C-alpha cells in the first residue's frame, strides 16, 4: 500500500468515506459539516447520509443541501429523543439503501423521485 494523497480541511474527525468508479467523487461524514455521521453512494450523482439527530438524507452532488430529509428515520425512544442513524449502506446503482441505528434496528429504504 502506498499513500497517494492527504486532504486537509476538516476541523473534526472524519467519520465515514465512500466513493464509486469516478475518481472525482469522494464523500465524507464529519461533524464540522453539520451532523453527518455516515455516508454511502447510491450512484455517481447521489448519496445517502445518516446522523446523530436521527435523520437520514438523500443528497445530490450538485447541491449543498439535501434533496430529501427523513426525520426520525428510526423513530424515537420513550423520552422522545431520536434514535441515532449510526450507519448507512447502499447497493450501488440501484434504488436500495439501508440504515442502522443505536436501537439495534436495520431498516431498508427505496429511494425514488417521489
UniProtKB/TrEMBL annotation:
<dbReference type="InterPro" id="IPR015943">
    <property type="entry name" value="WD40/YVTN_repeat-like_dom_sf"/>
</dbReference>
<keyword id="KW-0677">Repeat</keyword>
<dbReference type="GO" id="GO:0032040">
    <property type="term" value="C:small-subunit processome"/>
</dbReference>
<keyword id="KW-0539">Nucleus</keyword>
<dbReference type="Pfam" id="PF00400">
    <property type="entry name" value="WD40"/>
</dbReference>
<keyword id="KW-0853">WD repeat</keyword>
<dbReference type="InterPro" id="IPR036322">
    <property type="entry name" value="WD40_repeat_dom_sf"/>
</dbReference>
<protein>
    <submittedName>
        <fullName>Uncharacterized protein</fullName>
    </submittedName>
</protein>
<dbReference type="InterPro" id="IPR001680">
    <property type="entry name" value="WD40_rpt"/>
</dbReference>
<dbReference type="InterPro" id="IPR039241">
    <property type="entry name" value="Rrp9-like"/>
</dbReference>
<dbReference type="GO" id="GO:0034511">
    <property type="term" value="F:U3 snoRNA binding"/>
</dbReference>
